[in-house]
Specification:
By secondary structure, the protein is α/β, with parallel strands linked by helices. Helix content is 29%, strand content 18%. It has two domains: 5-257, Aconitase, domain 3 (2-Layer Sandwich); 265-408, Aconitase, domain 3 (2-Layer Sandwich). The protein contains 14 helices and 18 strands. It has a five-stranded parallel β-sheet with strand order 4-3-2-5-6. A five-stranded parallel β-sheet has the order 16-15-14-17-18, with helices on one face. It has a four-stranded parallel β-sheet with strand order 10-9-8-11. A hairpin with a 5-residue loop joins strand 12 and strand 13. Helix 5 (168-179) runs parallel beside helix 7, helix 10 crosses helix 12 and helix 10 (298-308) packs parallel to helix 13. The radius of gyration is 21 Å and the shape is globular.
């Protein structure tokens, strides 16, 4: 009987020939990641693993804005120096880790990656098994291994072609709305099919970014020529592009045709209230934000620029845009996207998670935002009495222009 890609990686990293869903294994990661959130520095109180396996980055507080964040940064610097951690991306050399780490060549197919934050599933787009282990990171730093329960695999077969202004994010939101908060429990999502094959690596990263909201362990995509080209462009390190066997056993197989998929809107008060653009159009907004680990890549910025070209942000709206890393910011500047954003009236911020968790762009009581962020619970971006909607970058850009939630297809179909 064949194995899924997830099972192959977990078997290899636990020294086994094969593993089956439900087994508990003791696995050794190839890469261990952590970012600058207060308290996470405590997880590194003692490090007894190869420091070359560790990557630390500053992305939440791009510059210290309080004594607390300044101390976290200082602790990271001291820890990196004490343990000889060379892969530390400090202020000015960092960006959002769930893109930066791939850009720097640390993520390779067939590897096992651990982070305290479950958004690390983003790297499943590169054929890695990337899992959030929370506080068990302390065990990883101390012992070099962690206990993992082998998940089943839900295969998601995606066909069709996206309309203009509809993205892989909308596909994920559609799946999330269909399956609900426990739809992935005990499983990893393996995305496949001709529509996934047609996606860029960036779009695949977005698709894999937030599967923890379905209670899934992570997400993964079998590596192909695009994956291999992406990785070889950033690293000379060897890797094993493992793939699922043709006779692998899946928990379930889901089929989605994206041809008629509309932009999806995540509505307050949390990520499980998902509606189509038709059901939410006309909702007035005060702030729009394009960025976070679920956006802010070149593909997203180009899409937003196509919407914003020659237009102005509505006078009642504040539009914030943060490229995901310095490299993306530089490329966006070279292509003239930053100029387009500034001419439209947007505020361009540094590569940071910032607005997504309320680091800046604070919302007052009664204010409404639409964002490409990852979470919209009350208080996430400011007042508990504010409201957060989420959508793809084209939807956010169109809404910023119209002053209300708007379908970007009306603008893009005229381009």
């Amino acid at each position: 009987m064949g194995l899924t890609l997830a099972q192959k990686i977990l078997a290899k990293k636990s020294g086994r020939a094969a593993v089956t869903p439900g087994e508990v294994i003791y696995a050794e990661p190839d890469l261990v990641l952590l970012y600058d959130w207060p308290g996470l520095d405590f997880l590194m109180s003692d490090i007894r693993i190869d420091p070359n396996k560790i990557v630390l980055n500053i992305d939440h507080f791009f510059v210290a804005n309080s004594e607390e964040s300044a101390r976290v940064h200082d602790n990271f610097r001291k820890i990196a120096k004490k343990y000889g951690i060379k892969n530390f991306y400090d202020v000015g050399r960092s960006g959002i880790g769930f893109q930066l780490v791939a850009e720097k060549g640390h993520v390779r197919p067939g590897t096992l990656i651990m982070h305290a934050d479950a958004h690390v599933s983003t790297f499943g787009a590169l054929g890695a098994y990337a899992v959030g282990v929370g506080g068990d990171m302390m065990s990883v730093f101390l012992l070099g291994k962690a206990w993992l329960k082998v998940p089943g695999t839900i295969k998601v077969n995606v066909t069709g072609k996206f309309q203009k202004g509809v993205t892989s994010r909308d596909l994920f939101e559609k799946i999330e709305g269909d399956l609900g908060p426990d739809g992935g429990t005990g499983n990893v999502f393996e995305f496949s099919g001709p529509a996934v094959a047609a996606m860029s690596v960036e779009s695949r990263m977005v698709l894999c970014n937030s599967v923890q909201y379905l209670a899934a362990d992570t997400a993964i995509i079998n590596p192909d020529k695009k994956t291999v080209a992406y990785v070889k462009a950033v690293t000379n390190e060897p890797f094993d592009a493992l793939r699922s066997d043709a006779d692998a056993t899946y928990t379930n197989t889901l089929n989605y045709d994206v041809s008629s998929l509309e932009p999806q809107i995540v509505c307050p008060p949390d990520v499980y209230y998902i509606k189509s653009i038709k059901e939410t159009e006309g909702t007035e907004i005060n702030q729009a934000f394009i960025g976070t680990c679920a956006s802010g890549r070149m593909e997203d910025l180009r899409l937003a620029a196509r919407v914003l070209k020659g237009k102005k942000v509505h006078p009642n709206v504040r539009l914030l845009i943060t490229p995901i890393t310095p490299l993306i910011a530089e490329q966006a500047a070279r292509e003239g996207l930053i100029e387009t954003f500034l001419q439209a009236g947007a505020v361009i911020g540094p590569p940071t998670c910032g607005p997504c968790f309320g680091g800046f762009g604070y919302l007052l009581p009664g204010e409404v935002a639409i964002t490409t962020g990852t979470l919209n619970v009350p208080g996430r971006m400011g007042s508990l009495d504010s409201k957060i909607y989420m959508g793809n970058p084209a939807t956010v850009a169109a809404s910023a222009v119209e002053g209300k939630i708007s379908d970007p297809r009306r603008i893009l179909n005229k381009r």
